[in-house]
C-alpha cells in the first residue's frame, strides 16, 4: 500500500505536526520537521503493509527528527512555545491550561502522553515507535500522569 505524497500529507500532516510539536515545542521547528518527514516519505519509495503501518512510520520519523532538532544549538535560541500557544484556538480555557501543563513536562513524558492519548497508540506500539521497552513506556506514562496531576492539583489549590 502506498499513498501519493499529497494524499499522505493531507491525511497525516496534522498528526505529524502535533507529534513534532510535542517534542520540540516550537512551531517553526515542528513545521520543518513535518516538511522533512514528508520529504523522506517521498524519497523512500516503499510499499507499506497498511495505513496504520504508514502512520506509525511517519510518526516515528517525526519524533526522531524532532529530537534531533531539539538537541541542536539552533533550537535553544528559538521563540518559546508559549508564544505559539497564544495563537491556538482553544474551545475552553481549561483546554489551553491543560495544553500548557502538558507542554511544560519533560520531553520523555510529553512524547509518550501525546502518542498514547492523542494518537491512540498502545504501550507496545509506542515502545516500538520510540525503540524502547514497554516497561519504560509504562513508567513514563505513569510518571507523566503523576507530574501532570501534581501540577494541575497545585494550580487548582492555589486558585482557592
Query: What is the CATH-assigned architecture of the largest domain?
Result: Orthogonal Bundle
Regarding quaternary structure, what we see is single chain
Helix content bin: over 70%
Number of helices: 8
Major pleated sheet: none
What class would the helix/strand composition place it in? mainly alpha
Say how many strands there are.
Answer: 0
Q: Kindly, what is the distance between the CA atoms of the first and last residues, rounded to a whole number of angstroms?
A: 55 Å
Mean pLDDT reading: 87
The fraction of residues in strands falls at under 5%
Cα shape: globular
Structural domain count: 2
Rg over CA atoms, rounded to whole Å, is: 16 Å
Q: Any low-confidence stretches, pLDDT <50, length ≥5?
A: none
CATH class call of the largest domain: Mainly Alpha
Give the H and E element order.
Answer: HHHHHHHH
Which fold name is given in CATH as the topology of the largest domain?
Answer: Rna Polymerase Sigma Factor, Chain: A
Map the helices and strands.
Elements: H1 5-24, H2 27-43, H3 51-71, H4 81-85, H5 93-103, H6 107-118, H7 123-130, H8 134-159
Helix pairs in contact: 1-2, 1-3, 1-6, 2-3, 6-8, 7-8
Describe this structure in words.
By secondary structure, the chain is mainly α. It has 2 domains: 1-88, Rna Polymerase Sigma Factor, Chain: A (Orthogonal Bundle), CATH 1.10.1740; 90-160, Arc Repressor Mutant, subunit A. Helix content is 75%, strand content 0%. The protein has 8 helices and no strands. It has helices at 5-24, 27-43, 51-71, 81-85, 93-103, 107-118, 123-130, 134-159. Helix 7 (123-130) crosses helix 8 (134-159). The chain is globular. The model has no long low-confidence stretch (mean pLDDT 87).
Amino acid at each position: 500500500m502506498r499513498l501519493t505524497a499529497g494524499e499522505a500529507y493531507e491525511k497525516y500532516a496534522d498528526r505529524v505536526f502535533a507529534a513534532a510539536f510535542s517534542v520540540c515545542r516550537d512551531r517553526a521547528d515542528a513545521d520543518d520537521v513535518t516538511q522533512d518527514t514528508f520529504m523522506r516519505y517521498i524519497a523512500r519509495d516503499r510499499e507499506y503493509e497498511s495505513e496504520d503501518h504508514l502512520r506509525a512510520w511517519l510518526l516515528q520519523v517525526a519524533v526522531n527528527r524532532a529530537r534531533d532538532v531539539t538537541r541542536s544549538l539552533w533550537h535553544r535560541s528559538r521563540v518559546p512555545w508559549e508564544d505559539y500557544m497564544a495563537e491556538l484556538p482553544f474551545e475552553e480555557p481549561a483546554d489551553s491550561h491543560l495544553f500548557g501543563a502538558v507542554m511544560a513536562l519533560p520531553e520523555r513524558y510529553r512524547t509518550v502522553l501525546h502518542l498514547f492519548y492523542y494518537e491512540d497508540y498502545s504501550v507496545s506500539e509506542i515502545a516500538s515507535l520510540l525503540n524502547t521497552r514497554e516497561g519504560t513506556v509504562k513508567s513514563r506514562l505513569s510518571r507523566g500522569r503523576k507530574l501532570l496531576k501534581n501540577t494541575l492539583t497545585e494550580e487548582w489549590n492555589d486558585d482557592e
